[in-house]
Each structure stands twice: as C-alpha cells, then as structure tokens.
Amino acid sequence: MSRLRWIRWLLGSALLALLTACSTAGSLDLRRVTAAGNLYTVATVDLSKDTLRLHWNNPTTGQPYRTFAQLSARLRKEGTRVLFATNSGIYAPGLVPLGLHVEDGRTLVGLNRARSGGNFALLPNGVFWVRGQQAGVTETQAYRRRGLRPTFATQSGPLLVQGGRLHPAFNRSGTSFKVRSGVGVCRDGRVRFVVSAGPVNFHSFAVFFRDTLDCPDALYLDGSISAYATPDTNTQFADFAGMWTVSR
Known about the structure:
The chain is 19% helix and 34% strand. It has four helices and 18 strands. The chain has helices at residues 3-21, 68-77, 140-146, 202-212, and strands spanning 29-35, 38-45, 51-55, 84-87, 91-92, 96-97, 101-103, 106-109, 126-131, 134-139, 152-156, 159-162, 165-166, 180-185, 191-196, 217-223, 228-229, 243-247. The protein starts with a helix and ends with a strand. The relative contact order is 0.22. Residues 1-26 have low confidence and may be disordered.
C-alpha cells in the first residue's frame, strides 16, 4: 500500500471508529458521513446480528411492492420492523429487475450478460450476494463460473471497486454527476449501503467506498432516483422494483 493510500485508509478508519463509537446500542448503525465535500448516508450491516433481505413482489397480490411504505407495512404484519430499506439494482419498464434477482434462494430473473445498454455496458458489472452471514460483490462472469448459490442477490453495474482497484473508466474529472447509491463489502466483514445526499461522479463515489469505508469491493446500484427509508425517514419519490431491507 502506498504512503498516500495508507494515510487515506488511516483517516477513513479513524472516522469510522469515531462514528461507530457514537452508535446507539441495539440499533442499526446509520450515519451521515462527509468526505471530499460530499455528504453520504451510510448504513452498516452486521450479518451476525442483522437480517438482510431482498424483496420484489408482494406474495398476496403478485405485484411489485413499489414503495418502502408498502413493503414495511407488509413486513410489520409478519412481526418484522424494518430499520433500513434502500433500492436494489437497475430495473426495466414494468418494474422488472434488469439483471439477476435472487430471493429466498429462488432465481426470479437470470443474469444479464448484455454488453450494451444502460449501465450494464460499462463493463465490468457485478453481483451483490448474501448467503447466511457471508456476503460478496463479484464480477458477473466470475459469479457465473463460481456457481454461487446465494439466498439473496442483485446484479447491477458498473463495479465501483474490484479487489481494491477503481473501475478503469472512472476519472476525477468525470462530468456525470448524479445522486448515487451503492453497496460495498468491507474489510471488517460488514456490508455498507451508501446513498449520496447530492450529485457525485463515479470516481468520487468509488473513492469513498475504497478510501473512507475501506471496502475493496463495491457495486453501483442506481442513480438519480436512489433513496432510503428508516422508521423516521423516507426519501423515496419514485417506484422501485427490488428493495433491500435490514431488520434486527
């Protein structure tokens, strides 16, 4: 690790330690973090304590839940209190996931192997998957070769960080600025969902995962309409297909 990278990692680790020390016992770690002048909401998921699930269709109606509110209401009837929710990967018209969607071990939408069209054209893209207390962000072709059988998974793109390296197409002077959401699997074993408070480019977003959150692998989920919800906050303004929930 270069001296500059080491200093960035040290500063990021110190910031996360401070934030963690301020967490409320017994609740999900949800923080607002500023880095390089950008503000982010960061939800830290500990799979040894938290339940992370992916949802798409309401089993009663067979139709997409569409909103955090509808999904939370359904889960509340089952005795589950949602502590955090955010949108999953990119979706097509009709609220159909555009890439892989695995829910409760069932593959509802298969891998998207397209090399053109939307964010999937900015290769490499990847899959965020969860199996028990294990999670990963894996490049799409590597995911296929490994034959992984996750309990939950979503495919999106591009990969923000892969093995500690930023996506090769990203650069500091990138002119595409959007509200962005993503997910990383970090060196401490925890999963971190991030939603930017304002427009950022891909480079800044990826650097935040790598240098501040210390996530060697991270995946872009969606942009512009990305949102999150907690018991006290709901920033959603557009319908979603897949949605991740965290409960404890």
